[in-house]
Amino acid sequence: MINLQFMPSRRVALYMAKLFVTRSFAVLVALVLVLLMLDLLGESGKILGVEGNTEADLWRYAGLRLPMLVSRFLPFSVLLGCLIAFASLNQNSEVIAMKAAGLSAHQILTPMILAATFVAGALFVFNETVVTRSAGFINAWSDNDYEPIPPETGIYTNVWLSQDDVLVRAQQASGRDENFVLSELTLYERVDGRIETITEIERATPDRNGDWAFEGVRRYNAEMNLVTEAESASGLTGITPQQFRLAKVDPEALDIVTLGQTIDDLRAAELPTAVAEAGWWHKITGPLSTILMPLLAAVAAFGLARSGQLLLRAVIGMALGFAYFVADNFALAMGNAGVYSPLLATWGPVILFAALGEAILIRTEE
């Protein structure tokens, strides 16, 4: 007879969920603190090496980096937390007691999977409200070599744009619409594949005539070996602020709604959308990987502890979890390169390892 009762008793369910949450949270705190200290050790010299930066900027960096580390390593923490919880349950023969009471492997796992679902939902909200803001600012700050950047929204750094024979590089772009500003702009004008002039511009803003108004212009002519300077000039006719905005799309720094609108803009401009689309779908599948971890770690929960295979089972569970993250990163890279479709790159690893984990569970325990 098929047992359609997926949940154990209320007491057992709460006990399993509590084990899952406490172990995962403990691992997350320890892991994030260690990684944050290592990250600070690597970046503190660069931050303090900039004139004007102080210890307060180190704390500022730590505060911005912390949400990004939590978001990135929460699924790892859930995997390790599940392995610790399952190993403890197995070691104390609690799994044997639950199975002797008539609970199946799926019933034992269900409370943890439900708890992981709530964690995944919280992670999705956290990513969209906190991580995107931190990522947008810290990426722009690090790309600017930790030099001070203005507090405006919509900051882009190290933006490249090509039109006809002119290659444009903006060290920083910020603002919206008529308040759009390019800083430390460099124009490379090419003739027959050779760079003929290099123009450095301190600041550029769009005007109403479809041109850009330049301030602080310094031009080098390679053919004449001559440098000229001017306080103001104009150019870049036909290039719009939106082209600079679409030239560099960072899915990590955009919430899912804004990223969806950006994808529509890229399509309207007939620009590649593979990176943006893969990033959009990964905003969903990334938190979903948290739900997958109890299933992949379940191999450590079953089997007799006295058989001496508990450590081996724990290693197998850890290997399955880390194999998923490797496959996920590889598939995402292939999606960004356009080799895989965005749907396959983001959903493929989730479906594959969910089927693999379920097959192992059914084969060994059901």
Automatic annotation (TrEMBL):
Keyword set, alphabetical order: Cell membrane, Membrane, Transmembrane, Transmembrane helix
Membrane topology reported for the UniProt record: Multi-pass membrane protein
Source organism: Sphingomicrobium sediminis
GO terms for cellular component: ATP-binding cassette (ABC) transporter complex
One of the protein's GO biological processes: lipopolysaccharide transport
Protein name (database record): LPS export ABC transporter permease LptG
Lineage of source species: Bacteria, Pseudomonadati, Pseudomonadota, Alphaproteobacteria, Sphingomonadales
Subcellular location: Cell membrane
InterPro entries (alphabetical): LptG, LptG/LptF_permease
TM spans (from-to): 68-87, 108-126, 284-303, 310-327, 339-362
Pfam families, alphabetized: LptF_LptG
